[in-house]
From TrEMBL:
The chain crosses the membrane at residues 47-66, 72-91. Keywords: Membrane, Transmembrane, Transmembrane helix. This is DUF4191 domain-containing protein. The keyword Signal does not apply. InterPro entries: DUF4191. Residues 1-26, 222-243 are annotated as: Disordered.
Length: 243
């Protein structure tokens, strides 16, 4: 009898351990490390600046302990405050760099919408054309927001057509539109989330759920761009602001 290769003699359990399964997503610390490498490569001064702010805050805490004699209180207060101050500055730098990398790319607006804070549901590419102009639809407490990416003049027609489609089921729900880009009347990618979060809250949670249900009944638009829309782009989230 011919001998089996050593690899084939391994048990199924051993083979399963060796690979073949889906790769695990990187952990939180690994993600922070990857972001730190990106920030250092794009902006070498950002990380030293964040560390410097942390050291400065900690030094002020030590000074407070020296002046008041309450060392334990000031140290326990200074360490977390120093960490938070440095981390917030690092996060802001990472967010700014991500926006710079996304600026001008097809699907940049979609990447921001999918990672936006708040109770939003996003439908990518609800309308578009062969010139790679595209319209996304976001639904939230303000109502319906149509976000266009592409040529400003061609987007006007696409957004107008999508507004008519949405109005058939949205009834009196407010419908806003935003164009992402650097052209006249467009919103830079770095300001898109701010613009969305500044919109008034016109609907309650039940009304938003009903609106989403009605929008599902809309047939898909006919013309769609054939280019890829990037999905799953993870962006560092900034500090949550009070609502």
């Amino acid at each position: 009898m011919a001998k089996q290769p050593k690899d084939s003699q391994n048990s199924p359990a051993t083979s399963a351990k060796g690979g073949g399964g889906a790769e695990k997503p990187p952990g939180r610390f690994k993600q922070i490390g990857l972001v730190a490498k990106l920030v250092h490569r794009q902006s070498p001064k950002s990380i030293p600046l964040a560390v410097g702010v942390s050291v400065l805050v900690l030094a002020l805490a030590v000074l407070g302990g020296f002046l008041t004699g309450s060392w334990l209180y000031w140290i326990l207060l200074g360490i977390p405050v120093a960490f938070i101050a440095g981390f917030l500055l690092f996060t802001r730098s990472a967010q700014r760099i991500q926006y710079q990398m996304l600026d001008g790319q097809l699907g940049a607006g979609m990447a921001v919408l999918e990672n936006m804070r708040g109770d939003w549901s996003v439908d990518p590419g609800v309308n578009g054309n062969r010139s790679m102009d595209i319209v996304h639809r976001a639904v939230g407490r303000p109502g319906v927001v149509l976000v266009g990416e592409g040529d400003p003049q061609r987007l006007k027609g696409l957004i107008a057509a999508e507004k008519k489609r949405v109005a058939r089921v949205a009834y009196h729900t407010p419908i806003y539109d935003v164009q992402v880009g650097r052209g006249e009347g467009q919103v830079p990618i770095a300001d898109l989330q701010k613009r969305m979060l500044k919109l008034p809250r016109n609907l309650g949670k039940a009304e938003v759920a009903e609106l989403r249900y009605r929008l599902k009944a809309l047939p898909p638009a006919m013309q769609m761009p054939k280019g890829p829309i990037p999905k799953g782009v993870k962006m560092p989230k900034g500090p949550k602001q009070g609502r």
